[in-house]
Amino acid sequence: MRQIVVIILLLLGTVCASAQQFIGCRVDISWAETPMLRTTFHVDAGDLTPSAYRTCYFGLVVTSLGYHEVYVNDTKVGDYVMQPAVSQLDKRALWVEYDITPYLHEGNNELMLWLGQGWGRIYGTPAAVQATVRKSVSDGECGLIYEIVKTDSIWEASPSPYSYTGSWQPMQFGGERYDSRVKERWRPASVYDAKDITVSRQEFAGNRDVGALLPQSIDTLSDGTFLIDFGRVVTGWFQLQCLPIPEGDVITMEYLDHRDAKPPFTETDIYVSDGSGDDDIHFTNRFHMHSFRYVKVKGLAHYLTYGLDIPILMASAVQISAVDPYGGATFECSDPRLNAIHDMVKYTLSRLTFSGYMVDCPHIERMGYGGDGNSSTMTLQTFWDVRDTYRNWLTAWADAMDSTGDLPYVAPAFRTGGGPYW
Q1: Can you say whether residue 379 is alpha, beta or left, with left for phi > 0 and alpha for psi between -120 and 50 degrees?
Q2: Are 160 and 240 in contact (CB under 8 A)?
Q3: How many Å separate Cα 158 from the centre of its chain?
Q4: What does the alpha-carbon distance between residue 88 and residue 260 come to, in Å, rounded to a whole number?
Q5: Which of 12, 91, 113, 278 is deepest in the core (most CB within 10 A)?
Q6: Residue 391 belongs to what H/E stretch?
């Protein structure tokens, strides 16, 4: 058997290292909440044609403060959403690796990273990223690794149409505002110094789209609001396609877990029209999620005066989770009441388990309470293999512990006090 020798031509870093410089997008004196950053790099034709004597792999390592999505040549890489997992962003950022080889072509290739500040709104960190593209070449006997792209101020940055509503505080999570009048405005990326933040590999696989629900009904209320009922509570994204509205007009989407909920509503999305012709309006969440059964859609009432009953062409609730609510372990017996209890508990836990921890509630606080996790850990592990969720969560608990060994109520840590692991 031949011995394979690997020669490293760059400092790859360890599994856990100290972060240095990230890049983001400055808008006047503040950081853009959901910026896009891009660069181009060249790929030779030979690197994309494997042979019996030579193979080539292009790996992208992304460390983001907040969420990110990866696009290569205008195609989204992978099917995970709202990456990376949660961490205490004033202490730790997680890196994720992507195989971008299948997305490349000969010549110049564009790499675009779309960021969302997310939990950085709590910890005071901007939407910023550190990334490298590494080319690994092997001929069966020798392996070479080259760093061909890294984030720096040569990258271009632009604000995106997305921003956040609400404060990301308990009972004030808000949602996303999509202003279609905001167009790309590219400028040199700005550097953010994150030297006090530790970087480590994400242990959690990621969140997935585990299925979409279509409306059970769409009712028109007396004030011209449209009430969409999805039949059960979901945790995830809302998607809407509707008829166009004039420039500057607003569509508001309010999220409810029961039909008769009273304002103020803590979760709201907003769409602002650019009035671009007769094209239908399309909205979907990107760097935020909601917990809801009902959605109130406002801003389309004028269509009722035209004699059109429902200007909503399509709506869906995209379920986001770390586990499949309809997969994993099953249980069935002769008593339908016990079956119903089992199904209710299993579905509820699937709605609470995402982003590398388990939350007390996904809409009011979205906190990783130790007491809730401790009391349900046996049940959760009976339903699914969630080892990667707990590996990520335990890292957050280690970061949350103070110098005396005291633990807060939640991890990642937030202003909740502390005490025994209740």
Answers
A1: alpha
A2: no
A3: 19
A4: 36
A5: 113
A6: helix 387-400
Rounded Cα distance between 84 and 200, Å, is 11
CA–CA dist 278, 246 (Å, integer): 10
**How many helices (H) and strands (E) in the chain?**
4, 30
HSE value, Cβ hemisphere, 13 Å, CA-based, for 398: 8
Question: Is the Cβ–Cβ distance between 319 and 236 less than 8 Å?
Answer: yes
Distance CA 83, CA 94 (A): 9
Residue 55 CB coordination number (10 Å): 16
120 phi and psi angles, rounded to 5 deg: -60, -20
Query: 419 pLDDT band (50/70/90 cuts)?
Result: low
Is residue 191 pLDDT above 50, yes or no? yes
Which residue has 């790499």 as its token pair? 111
pTM confidence score: 0.92
What pLDDT shows up at residue 196? 84
Cα angle value 399/401/406 (rounded, 5°): 175
Residues 6+ apart with CB under 8 A from 372: 358, 359, 360
Cross-strand pairs, 298: 252
Q: What is the pLDDT of residues 219-251, one digit of tens each?
A: 999 999 999 999 999 999 999 999 999 999 999
Q: How far is CA 174 from CA 30, 148, 255, 266, 270, in A?
A: 20, 40, 10, 6, 10
CA distances for 247 relative to 16, 273, 313, 372, angstroms:
49, 5, 20, 46
Dist. CA 406–CA 408, nearest whole Å: 7
- Tokens 């990326």: give the residue: 189
User: ω into residue 264 within 30 of 0, thus cis?
Assistant: yes
* Cis-peptide into 84, omega within 30 deg: yes
Q: Which two tokens stand for residue 239?
A: 């998607």
